[in-house]
Amino acid sequence: MPSGTGVATGSSGPMTGNHVCSCTTEPAAQSIRLTTAWTTLERSGVRSFEPASSVRHGPGSQPTTTEVRAREVMLNAVLVNGAAGYAFAKLRFRGRDRLLRLMLLALVVPGQIGMLPLFLLVRALGLVNTLAGVVIPGLASIFGIFLVRQYALSIPDSILDAARVDGAGEIGIFRRVALPLIAPILATLAVFTFLGAWNDFLWPLVVLADETRYTLPVGLASLAGEHVQDTELMMAGAVVTVAPAVLLFVALQRYYLAGIMGGGVKE
Fold this sequence. Notes:
CATH superfamily: MetI-like
Structural class: mainly alpha
Mean pLDDT: 76
CATH architecture: Orthogonal Bundle
Low-confidence stretches: 1-63
Number of domains: 1
Radius of gyration: 28 Å
């Protein structure tokens, strides 16, 4: 047999077909695995790590669904819960104490029990798979109202009566007098609300059907596939998910502590 067509030999013996197949298919298998992982990533909705409309408008053109939802829920919840908590603390209206007791009684009911009726209501309003359907249910909470109410009880009635004597209306008193006084507890409520909206998993999973609109917790959970799992990408996604909440807490830490400590001071 000519030497040019012979089988290469060495100290370990001739190189068989299995060796050749193993050497040539290992890079291809790795490429297939990475391609499959990226396809799974796109289909799982974790492209919401990028802006929701990055497919059509390019990355960075729109905020993510998670950012929009957390911001809208936080701002509106602070306004609604702040006004309601102040009303329960300082305004006198019929059935105030009875309504407050009923609300506190509802705190013992798990939120998952009311999720089905809430979803049916959202569907009847045509808000399924929309940002409004994710945001509106979080605009008011019994905990937020009660938290602001307990803090507003520490506002001296003499200050409010003096404003009424000067001719200020109730809305003006709330805006110019009460709102600055309850600012610390509103900052505390903002931290709680933002963290709850940012980390919420179940309600966005129920309402949002389009994978491109998934929030970060839902998209991060969808990365854990049965056959393909990119651990590095999951860890990076976890950092992206946690970092904004930590930064917000650090930025509002002074107001947060003032709101917690000041809530126990009474006139």
